[in-house]
């Protein structure tokens, strides 16, 4: 995870601040009170909003966050996590009392807002935004402050925390609190199972005692059979008597009704005819309603049959072969059991996957990294050895070639010196003159002599030529070409003069030829001297090459021995790493096999769970449809009964009309009264006999009910005894399972805590050794209870509270960095999802020597592939070495902060500090 942009509008000293963060180290610097820490608080507020009140500073409240001149402030943070970009906006709005004084602040309606292409829709409520950001960032506000955000003045939080608080903080950061929750849950479950076992034992003892007080079931059944036979016989007699009485009573009632109706027969006849018409209308209405209910019932029955077919098809599934899913209660109970089994299977799979397998894979990754590094180093050393051996061969070859050149150049130099000596003799140069003297003195001097003499001869030759021309003109023209006088006037023997001139010209020509020859000899000498000097230089170079080759051979052979020794050690290390890798691969294979078995179990029980869930849903659907069917049936019966009643009423009324019409002429009231008296005599006799039979039957029925009650009690107690024994056994099994799960959770928690403490010690000491340069302590030790000690040079363990403030600060920085590295390794991808490491004025309590080492710690953290580090500091070394410096300034007139980035800002700020007061180490209003 990394921050990209922060916008602060009317937040504390910022009116409209825009800060862009870069990859790597981002260092915020500036004068005290300029607003540096406000930027970090803005980042925290963007992520966790109102949690700022509880996690940032001691005297902080929301109204303090909004600029004094404004009614509301806005924070916008753009960050990247998991390859997706997120933007969160938070607006804080002041509230006022009746006197227009600020009395509080709250989040503005509709805020905060979180948006991203990675979300299906924008999130806008405070709780939902905080939940989503916590999911994306991987930690809550408290974990953020305890791990990645080291606040100004709060550098010793972990050091001065109690042991229990420190354990909770570190276990929470390192993910072990989940195992504590699992253990607590399983212990609660085990207590419930034990309570169920105690209840079952108590109820089982009570049931056994009640069974001992009851007679045998066979004896009770024999008495029931005898009594039942007597009751059956009496019932037959009673039925005969009741049948006779019913017939007589019906006959008497008919005759009585006839007497009662004679007087008003005619009135009843009229009313009956009206009622007949009403009954006929009702009959038609009920017919229509009955047809509607019949159609609704048919549809419900079709849906029920379809659901029943689905249920029967489900029962045929091989996965449910051991379950009676056709019974609703059995299916529901089986579904509850399957849910528990699925949860246990998933828990087992998670334990293997997240605990044992991850730990082995982490160890394997480290070993493979060691192997890869060792192989690379071996290949590098082998390549280096080949190169060094090639250097030896090359040096030996160069030496051989150089020695041959030495011999060749020595011979050539001797020849060149002979040539020079021979040519020097021709030019009258001393034979014992050195090559350098000949080149630097004799050749230039001889060249000058030849050149000077040659110029004189050429000039003389030119003069002789002119004279010869004049003599020739005088001889040919008879007149002097100079003065115009005749040949006779000059008294010159032109022929003699011509002969003399010719002799002098020939002598000059010969001397010029000699000088030209001498010049050629001098050029040859000069060339021979240069060849000799070149040969001599080549000889010196060749001899130097021989010496250099000897030195190179000696150095290369020494390096061969050194590299071969290093290779031998590296090959030994490689064998150890490979053996360890093979062992870890075997363990991982075993763990993967166990994981595959667990996965198979999870798939199997989850499939059963899903099928049983479907069966329970089908039973519910069938039950609802059967209720609908029953309702439609009841409606049909009710309406049919109403329709039949209407029809019967029609028939009865029609018959009544006919009877009444017939009876009006032939009814005899006296004869009817005599018949009634005779019927009453028979009824009295039959009823007396019936009363006796019913009394006898009642006694037998009461006796049978008592016997059946005892039988049911015996059966119920026997059934309850079996059920309670089964419940006790089930509780015992669950207790054993819970105990084993708790044991496994505690074992995993212990191993993970041991691994985390080992890594925490390693990484904390790594950073501590980079930061701490005094000789008082040689390291840090964190025991299994998270107690922290400083290790003195004599090995004594000292509590950090006994150390200086600077040493406590260094220890806490090392501990924070160690925790941060473990979290990056735990979250994977080199901490790609983890927030940047944030340090607010970490140099507080540090002396100048240790402040210089803080840069080393930051570089070490950067080597962990942490994408981004945010740092607030005044230290010039940290500022100059930062990847991205951000200068924070405040206008003293408007009390408004602004930021500038880049090296130009750094240089300007550095120059300013040379003329302004030295910036203090601690900021109070940032």
From TrEMBL:
Biological-process GO terms, alphabetical: double-strand break repair
Coiled-coil intervals, chain numbering: 457-755
Region (Disordered): 193-217, 270-310, 337-404, 891-926
InterPro entries found in the cross-reference section: P-loop_NTPase, Rad50/SbcC_AAA
Keywords assigned: Coiled coil
A GO term, aspect molecular function: ATP hydrolysis activity
Compositionally biased region (Basic and acidic residues): 198-212, 270-306, 338-356, 378-404
Keyword Amino-acid biosynthesis: no
Domain Rad50/SbcC-type AAA: start-end pairs: 6-231
Presence of the UniProt keyword Coiled coil in the record: yes
Family: Belongs to the Sph1/Sph2 family.
PANTHER family per record: ABC TRANSPORTER ABCH.3
Stated name of the protein: SMC domain protein
Organism: Halorubrum lacusprofundi (strain ATCC 49239 / DSM 5036 / JCM 8891 / ACAM 34)
